[in-house]
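Worked example (supplementary).
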Amino acid sequence: MLGKTAGSLFWMARYLERSENNARLIDAGFRIALTRSQTAAAEWKSVLVTAGVNQAFQAAHGDYSSARVIDFLLRDPANPSSILSVIRQARDNARTARTALTRETWEAVNTSWMTLVALLKRQVREDDLPDVLTTIRRQSAQVRGALNGTMLRNDGYHFALLGTYLERADNTARILDVKYYLLLPSVAHIGTSIDNVQWETILRSVSAHRAYRWLYGAEISALKIAEFLILYRQMPRSLTFCSERMENHLDELQRHYGDETEAWRMAHALVHDKLNAPIQSIFDGGLHQYVTGFLRDTAALARQVERDYRFVE
Amino acid sequence: MNSQEGETRSPYRDYCGWFEAEDVARIQHKAVQAEALFRTTGITFNVYGAVDGDERLIPFDVVPRIISAGEWRRLSRGIEQRVRALNAFLYDIYHRQEILRAGRVPTDVIAGNAAFLPMMMGLDPPGGIYTHISGTDIVRTGANEFYVLEDNARTPSGVSYMLENRETMLQMFPELFAKVAVREVSDYPINLLKSLAACAPPACGGTPTVAVLTPGIHNSAYYEHSYLADHMGAELVEGHDLRVVDGRVAMRTTQGYRAIDVLYRRVDDDFLDPLNFRPDSMLGVPGIWDVYRAGGITIANAPGTGIADDKALYSYMPDIIEFYTGEKALLPNVPTWRCSDPEHLREVLDRLPELVVKEVHGSGGYGMLVGPAASKKELAAFRAKLEANPSNYIAQPTLSLSTVPIFTKKGLAPRHVDLRPFVLMSPQGITITPGGLTRVAMTRGSLVVNSSQGGGTKDTWVLED
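After joint prediction of all chains, the assembly is encoded as:
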């Protein structure tokens, strides 16, 4: 397979995952903005920081009104991470890698793009927002279904899945990076549980507020939430789950090509060193340092994959 | 579809029987479905110069254009003769130039022509093939009158439409194919692969590796490039995927560089090699020319092939065919005035309102004048252009093109069409896919079928004997 094609599959999957993640972030932010108008601006800011576009937003707009932030995150062509920009890039990558996709997968990506372009032609009214966000997530699920149901389990498939999990791990880590202070035992919080709405936002932004309840019942603690998002192996957006999948897909690629890569060694180290620690020791060592370290590691891993498999010259 | 006497021409008999028994609303519904199908598949077309024009759909008409077995036999014989002559002409023009010595084609038509590539002189392309893939544009003016409108020997496009149109028809009207015996077109990609592989260069050891070179996803024909690569099981490469490694052109795979034997390029000559042609080209491969000269790669079509489909040469085609095949052309040319000739120019200027005038190097229907459809102002403007640079133009009479039916809201209506059959050539022979691309002028009375000018397409049926 061409290095460029491998890279396009990897990035197609990353962008599709990003579009879904951003829809989730908007959803969580919107909920807070509706219910707690006094903290709305701060919440929108943290959404923008998580999406990595706060500076771009400030340069263009300044104040964090809901309507402006939502439009920026959904449609602004100046925002490279807006849903519209991201889905366009996903489709461009899919077109570049067209020969490595099944017809079903390609058509799912293309249909997503057509649907979202039509959906986001005009500014979205706030009462339409939940529907729009549902559609975005549903489109992403359709692509995933086509990919899963029709693609050969060859190198191309593994590059796409590698991209998916790398993006997802990065997203969950960013949420933790932005919200870590809520999970720290500070003076004010001693003896009290953390702010209900705030922790719910964190869980909502990874679509796991119900799952958490099923697992831990009514016990809401910073330690448990962090454990759930970082170490819990059954949670499909936890750092451990995503990292294990990355390791697995890199393993399959090694088997496919028959040689060991540096990227695989890095993913292996991520799973077996970095994530192989009790949550208490992560807290003891500093949650924030831990998460920024993880973000650094995954970014380095992404660069290494690009080198090992010759995505670019 | 109808003969002069108003009777249904026989190839259409079975189809018409089916159509008359059908509910028009159902066909209408199918036509809408077809459009959605094309959009989902991404069979879209970028229009140059349009503001938000990327992603336009070529209109598709659900009524097939039907050609009888006998008509096709005659057509394909004529096309084969023509393509053989073109290839022989190219070999000659890049070697001893006998046809110039014999005075059958004037030297200045070649020497002063930008499509002529002096670097190809004396070079032997693998298998002696220049025109691996070509398309012959044909129009019909009467029951047994076909004319060749132009030859496409550079990088003829449209074959993916031929294939997808059939696929769409099969999906929408499966029962129709049980009633009418239509010849298959779906083996085109595999024939293309075989034909290209049969032209592998001397450096190739083992099974030839074939790749398709595209300018990239923003090119108007990108869909076709990816379609052909996909259906051949060949890699779709861009210039930045390629480099010269150990005297071979190689593509960057996840496992390092791998040599390519045959490159089906869908970029123009100028953009092939920035070292040897246009230095600003980002599309090509630096050094590919030297590999080509040394027999390290086959480039299809061969560089310099464009001289054969140059419009300045078109009018000499009957002579060219006779010169190389010793036979009269089986398919006639449209009479053509060369505006470079002062006498011809005078006549063209006199009769401008009734003529079609084309740029010698133009394609895609850009920069042409359709006299009968032009306003006084357009005519005057074109007259000025003609007088300023006459050798840039040729002119032809407006033919009374035959029409075929298309499906409109008001039922069937006649529209003008042309036909582009696709021809593959290798040392093992010539393969013509039965049918080709039928382009149709969607507006009533219009003669312009180019997709860039709003023309549409329809499925083309060649009937079994």
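Two points are worth noting when inspecting this output. Chain B is about 30% helix and 25% strand. Residues 58 and 454 of chain B are 7 Å apart (CA to CA).
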